[in-house]
Amino acid sequence: MTTPHLSQFPTGFTWGVATSSFQIEGSTFVDGRGESIWDRFCATEGKVKNGDHGEIACDHYNRFAEDIALMKSLGVKAYRFSIAWPRILPSGSETEPVEAGLAFYDRLVDALLEAGIEPWVTLYHWDLPQALQDEGGWLNRRIVERFVHYTEIVAKRLGDRVKHWITINEPWVICHLGYGVGEHAPGLKSIRHSLLAAHHVLLAHGAAVPVIRRHVSDAKVGITLNLCPSEPASESPWDIEANRSFDGFFNRWYLDPIFGRDYPADMVQEYTERGDFVDHATWIEEGDMETIAVETDFLGINYYSRAVIRSDKVSEEENWERTVFDDGPRTAFNWEVHAPSLERLLLRLTNDYGAKAIVVTENGASYPTAPDANGVVADVERQAYFEQHLSACASAIAKGATLTGYFAWSLLDNFEWAEGYEQRFGLVWVDFDTQQRIPKQSALWLRDFWS
Question: Which fold has domain 6-450?
């Protein structure tokens, strides 16, 4: 493994850490915050491991000053966080926002700037107001105007200080895990629904971008996609075909329309033949695809692992593909550690899609390493993970990739959605009973790397 050096990254490169509101804030129903789909999901038996919930999480709502001081001590230059939609508009559609919710983010942004840390705002990181879900959520086209209304409120309030904006985080997760297979909130199980939700999510992104620009001078706006580079397990035609389908399902369905290419024709045909996209003409109105392809300033990508695809086909009969991995190292989430695929992804986005600026908005790994008797968290696997992936970023830049920033996931051990508190991605160990924070060895390594 080649050790990365800061000199391999261009001047002005952004270095940061990332979190999301529901995963760390806690104070679920404090100061007028409304119910989100994740509050409802957590309260539904059997949906989240160990019956965990986000009511306290990392208590960041009350401890943000402590967490900002921690970031400053680690040499963090930028902080990507998300706004909790139900803190601003409890039902998602009130005419006037909750002042206490906006005031919290005022305090957070001001404290970040005072500490010399650049705020990067994500407007939607999955905590949809439950009242909007009761109206259909992302299946109801009206949610686009709801999101634009919410965006305008937040941009008007924070836009004098926040210049970097991400509209939506990980459409694939929102739509496939939330509406397609039910592993995430709101827990629906219909591929047709996931495709309809995806159209509205992308449309909301496109409609929100000009609203941000209208209220934020010199705004830098993008969207974050979670992407999974894939490759066939063999040269067999069935594996190659299965890999094409996986790439279309996971990556191209979101990349292509954002870059003005419409939905990929091969996947439209595939979904139509399966009966999942037969009525799509009623979903897509005139001008929708142009709205989705709005010009942005950067593409955010969240990368964790690759997929190696082997078809289940043993004949010409229709079957779905499955994911396999080589016998490489795994994280506690059983995700393969494969940094070369990050380099390959960055070059694909630059060369095939013409992405003018790419920001790695999440990259990290879950390991359970706890403090030893001396209070040291020697998470050597996570440190190695960062070394490998930053080396991949440096190599991609040397080959022409338009990478301009990198955010480690995550600042803190936190509520990891359906996994509850079992998976620890943090650079900082959190004792969820006492809220004690201990920087891990990986955090200290990053501090020394980017300082």
Answer: TIM Barrel (3.20.20)
